[in-house]
Amino acid sequence: MLNRLRNLIAPPSVEQRAALLAGKTIPYTLKRSGKRRSIGLRIDDRGLTVSVPLRASEQWLHSVLQDKAHWVVEKLDGWQARKPLEIRLADGETIPFLGELLTLRVVQSLFAAPAHRHGGELRVYVVDDSEAARIEQAVSRWYQHEAKQLFASRVAHYAALLNVSPRAIKLSSATTQWGSCTARGTVRLNTQLIKLPLRLIDYVVVHELAHLREMNHSAAFWGVVGSVCPDYAKLRRELKAVALGHL
């Protein structure tokens, strides 16, 4: 009975809503909190989230949304433009690999086998070609296998040139970083790099290995990068224009 009374008195803490903003119907998540004293708007890859005080009035909420309408639409359009194109993992579709496109061939087989590249195709063997999850899993494993081998060889090549010795090379699935390097010498490289041209992979490898000599982004650090990657500024700009996506 007490819980029912509370539900009648307090509004739900999280709601899915929509509002007409600058001529567009914009869905958003409404979050209520007893700790808030003002209305806050946040836009990220999940869309618009509006955080309000627990008992904020509808009039106040409407007023804030209308005041920020053009800002909201502009920011949402910006996020949409940065989203990577969704890849359909089905027979005949294309997938990126080292800056090129491979045609995905889904082959029905009595036994599932590891995916492998054959010329300009990636062949995936599944028992049931209608199981999208298994196709995705097979492609993901192939990407990881290729990334592990290629990254190891590129790290070995540039580590020798830079006279550094990383303690470990690991794959990363981070959503915001192409790579990272710890003070203890662990270099992490994002699996998604395997989709990009080799020149961009090499830039990230050099960037992270350079941190083993300069754990900062000082002029000395960029000097280390430039010693083996003289066009790093151009590559850095090119990489920044790439949306870090997911398999």
Folded structure, characterized:
This protein is an alpha/beta fold. The protein has two domains: 2-82, no CATH class; 94-240, Zincin-like (2-Layer Sandwich). The protein has seven helices and eleven strands. The chain has helices spanning 2-9, 58-67, 69-82, 132-162, 198-210, 219-228, 232-240; strands spanning 14-21, 24-33, 40-44, 47-53, 94-97, 100-108, 113-118, 121-126, 168-172, 179-181, 186-190. The strands form three sheets. Strands 1-2-4-3 form a four-stranded mixed β-sheet, with helices on one face. A hairpin with a 2-residue loop joins strand 1 (14-21) and strand 2. Helix 4 crosses helix 5 (198-210) and helix 5 (198-210) crosses helix 6. Mean pLDDT is 86; it is low at 1-9.
What is the gist of this entry?
This protein is an alpha/beta fold and 247 residues long. The chain has seven helices and eleven strands.
